[in-house]
């Protein structure tokens, strides 16, 4: 994809939700409605729109339903305009959860990460207890659920990244509760024969948020860039969206566990210096590169769910242009530099 710039939010949203031919094919042979639990976050709206668009292009008449607390009325209006039904629900409220309609396909996006320090009990309830409730409610559905690359230990920076065969070694309450989420989903998948896929995402990005956006903002504002977490992965959110939908084809028991990550191992120093050139800004650094970092090897995901279509180089150029033109941001930093598991 050699597009020079993304003009505005409308074009961005169209690109994030544009289904690939493979996604359309998934929707063509998938039976039944699709419900997204936790649709109100950063990824949910564009993922719901991709499901809606792919379903329409496949010729199906399925319902696409987004579930969240919906603190923003504007989001509800936008989703309705795109043909997505919405249900306002506090998922941790058993009565509200049980009142949701039964649907055969669930995309599970609900989680608590940022702000989990100081709210450890809530983080464990949201990330570990809720999956069990969802499995009890949707015992006859197939479920694709997000996990995170944070369940792995950091690996040496010369390493290709953690693979699905590596034993999890979570650090901190957030990562521990996310591994708990995987364990609970696996328990119910095995006991109830629920087909499941668990996607260890590391890290989705678009023009308004993500690790690359964080680094670009630091360079743009003249803040020093911390080199301690010296390397990272990033994947264009439209690519992770497409892989998420295609995972519906691979839900199984025991669950499929697969990394969803960008193919490049990106170096913080090099990325910041490139942003400096594109923005015509000097770059200042603090700290020194640690010998390890959170890195994921995404090759199994590409084999099963398709290869990313947008390179990190393209993302960097798009993001720099977006920032120079002062386009909107979500104001949700990733805190990817965190090494002690405290989010």
Question: What report would you give on this structure?
Answer:
The chain has helices at residues 9-16, 21-29, 44-58, 73-81, 94-98, 120-137, 172-192, 211-221, 237-246, 268-279, 299-305, 312-324; strands spanning 34-37, 64-68, 85-88, 105-108, 142-148, 155-156, 196-202, 204-205, 225-226, 231-232, 235-236, 256-261, 266-267, 285-286, 292-293. With 343 residues, the protein is α/β, with parallel strands linked by helices. The model has no long low-confidence stretch (mean pLDDT 95). Helix 2 runs parallel beside helix 9 (237-246), helix 8 (211-221) crosses helix 10 (268-279) and helix 10 (268-279) packs across helix 12 (312-324). The longest helix has 21 residues, at 172-192. The radius of gyration is 19 Å and the shape is globular. A seven-stranded parallel beta sheet has the order 3-2-1-4-5-7-12, with helices on both faces. Strands 6-15 form a two-stranded antiparallel sheet. A two-stranded parallel sheet has the order 8-11. The relative contact order is 0.15. It has a domain at 9-206 and 236-262 and 296-306: Rossmann fold (3-Layer(aba) Sandwich). The chain is 40% helix and 15% strand. The protein is built from twelve helices and 15 strands.
Tags for this model:
alpha/beta, 15 strands, about 15% strand
């Amino acid at each position: 994809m050699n597009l020079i710039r993304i003009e505005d939010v409308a074009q961005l949203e169209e690109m994030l939700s544009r289904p690939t031919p493979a996604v359309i094919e998934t929707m063509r042979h998938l039976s039944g409605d699709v419900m997204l639990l936790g649709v109100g976050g950063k990824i949910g709206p564009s993922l719901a729109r991709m499901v809606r668009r792919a379903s329409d292009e496949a010729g199906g008449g399925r319902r696409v339903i987004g579930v969240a607390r919906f603190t923003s009325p504007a989001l509800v209006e936008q989703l309705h305009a795109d043909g997505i039904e919405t249900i306002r629900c506090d998922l941790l409220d058993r009565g509200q959860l049980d009142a949701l309609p039964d649907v055969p396909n669930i995309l599970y996006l609900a989680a608590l990460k940022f702000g989990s320090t100081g709210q450890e009990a809530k983080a464990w309830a949201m990330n570990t207890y809720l999956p069990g409730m969802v499995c009890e409610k949707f015992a006859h559905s197939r479920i694709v659920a997000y996990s995170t690359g944070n369940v792995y230990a950091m690996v040496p920076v010369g390493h290709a990244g953690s693979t699905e065969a590596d034993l999890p070694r979570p650090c901190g309450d957030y990562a521990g509760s996310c591994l708990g989420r995987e364990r609970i989903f696996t328990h119910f998948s095995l006991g109830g024969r629920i087909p499941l896929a668990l996607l260890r995402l590391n890290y989705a990005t678009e023009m308004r948020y993500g690790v690359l956006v964080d680094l670009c903002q630091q360079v743009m504002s003249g803040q020093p860039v911390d080199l301690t977490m010296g390397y990272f992965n990033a994947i264009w959110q439209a690519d992770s969206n497409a892989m998420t939908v295609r995972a519906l084809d691979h839900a199984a028991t025991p669950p499929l566990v697969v990394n969803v990550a960008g193919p490049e191992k990106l170096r913080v120093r090099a990325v910041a210096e490139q942003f400096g050139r594109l923005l015509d800004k000097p770059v200042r650094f603090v700290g020194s590169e640690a010998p390890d970092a959170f890195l994921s090897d995404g090759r199994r995901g590409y084999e099963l769910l398709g290869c990313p279509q947008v390179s990190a180089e393209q993302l960097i150029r798009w993001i720099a242009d977006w920032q120079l033109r002062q386009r909107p941001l979500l104001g949700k930093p990733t805190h990817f530099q965190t090494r002690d598991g405290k989010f």
